[in-house]
Amino acid sequence: MNFDMSVIEIILFSLIAFLGSFVLTPIAKKISQKLNLIDIPDKRKVHNGSVPRGGGLAIYVSFILAVLVIGNFDKEILGFLISSFIIVTLGLFDDKFGLRATHKFLVQSLAAIVAIYFGIQINMDLFLVGHLAKYSVLSLPLTFFWIVGVTNAINIIDGLDGLAAGVSTIAAFAVATVAFLSGSETVGLLALVLGFSALGFLPHNFKSRIFMGDSGSLFLGFSLATLSIIGSLKLAAAFSLIVPFTILLIPIFDTLFAIIRRIIRRKSIFEGDKRHFHHRLLDLGFSPLQAVMFIYLFSIIFSGLAIYSSQVRNRTGYVVFAASLSLIFVLTSIVVYLHQKKTNNV
Fold first, then answer.
1. 8 A C-beta contact, residue 238 and residue 126
2. How far, in Å, CA of 175 to CA of 323, rounded?
3. With contact defined as beta carbons under 8 Å apart, do 167 and 153 qualify?
4. Which helix (H) or strand (E) holds 270?
5. How far apart, in whole angstroms, are the C-alpha atoms of residue 157 and residue 253?
6. What is the pLDDT of residues 121-172, one digit of tens each?
7. Does residue 212 contact residue 61 with C-beta atoms inside 8 Å?
8. Where are the alpha helices (DSSP H) in 71-184?
9. Does any domain span residue 268?
10. N or C, which end of the chain is more exposed by having fewer CB within 10 Å?
11. Residue 235: what pLDDT?
């Protein structure tokens, strides 16, 4: 899977992704308007007025353009490309027709199974040895839930201008760094290209001129989930799980809290609400831009900690991971407490 690349080649591929996304996004806006891919405001959304939501097309096409120039891929990468196409197609249909959550889950499951079939799976043999080795069969369900979970986690945080695209950009660059440092050059390059594809869309998104829609958020989430698995397989022991988990800590925790919250309230876990992390920040007085930058900051912090953990690969790495979990738990708890206190006083 590895091949030698010069710095100039890496810059070239990154530019293709960035400029492609930046140039194609206005075109995607026009296509969205013609195809009626429009986001209509409702009680769960914070924007005013109808906004085209076909930006995911620009992100995906620019990514594929760069991939075609790169070429030279093995079975796992081919599986990723096929399954990601399924996800983008799902997103477009959802943007157009508004599919039921169960239908989306079934298609996401199909994409995850395709990825697993092509060899993309968490290698539990790395840290289940001896009498525990029999539990390596858990690799398949764990991989399935990781892919579907992260895919939806990025989709869930797509509630403010620049939030999902920016967090995905940060996460993609972190995955790329870990992959390059561990010797997975192909995965590192693909993650880098993914990050620049999202980055090229970001300037257009910040002014609500166009949204990425589910085609974009699902694609970014699915790509981060699968590439982080492939790029982490050369890491020692449980760090193949710890590193990508830490990189995506904010969207993962937001999703877990949402599931727990809905179970406690006896509601469907697929039912949307306005109690996500970014919603609570807005209710606490943050402007949309301040909320996004606040989440960016902690995404960068967790990504940095993940990269560090990928290199130490010893007891210190576990300590860093524990500290990351503690930080996100404390941060989330403080925001939830302040939000509840303000809500009760209203």
1. yes
2. 20
3. no
4. none
5. 11
6. 887 654 444 444 444 577 889 999 999 999 999 999 998 999 999 999 999 9
7. no
8. 75-97, 101-117, 139-156, 163-181
9. no
10. C
11. 66
CB 64 within 8 A of CB 88: no
118 secondary structure, DSSP code? T
Does 338 fall in a domain?
Answer: no
Residue found under tokens 């937001």 = 254
What pTM was estimated for this model as a whole?
Answer: 0.93
Q: Pick from 197, 166, 151, 180: which is nearest to 57 by CA?
A: 197
pLDDT of residue 242: 87
By CB neighbour count within 10 A (0-12 exposed, 13-18 middle, 19+ buried), where does 185 fall? middle
The secondary structure of residue 132, as a DSSP letter, is: G
Residue 134: other Cβ atoms inside 10 A: 9
264 in any annotated domain:
no
Strands 38-39 and 51-52: antiparallel
23 within a domain of the structure (yes/no): yes
Residue 121 CB coordination number (10 Å) = 21
Q: Look up tokens 């293709």; give the residue.
A: 16
Provide the number of structural domains found in the chain: 1
For 139, the domain range is 7-246
Contact criterion met (CB below 8 Å) for 226 and 143? no
Q: Strand, coil or helix: what is 51?
A: strand
- d(CA 226, CA 41) in angstroms, rounded, equals 32
Among 255, 201, 193, 182, smallest CA distance to 224 is for: 193
Q: Which residues contact 238 (CB under 8 A, 6 or more apart)?
A: 126, 127
- The per-residue pLDDT for 40 is 79
> Do the beta carbons of residue 314 and residue 256 sit within 8 Å?
no
Q: Which residues of the chain have pLDDT under 70?
A: 1-5, 42-48, 124-136, 208, 233-238, 346
Closest CA to 336 of 290, 296, 278: 278
What is the secondary structure of 295-314 as a DSSP string?
HHHHHHHHHHHHHHHHHH-S
What pLDDT is recorded for position 1? 41
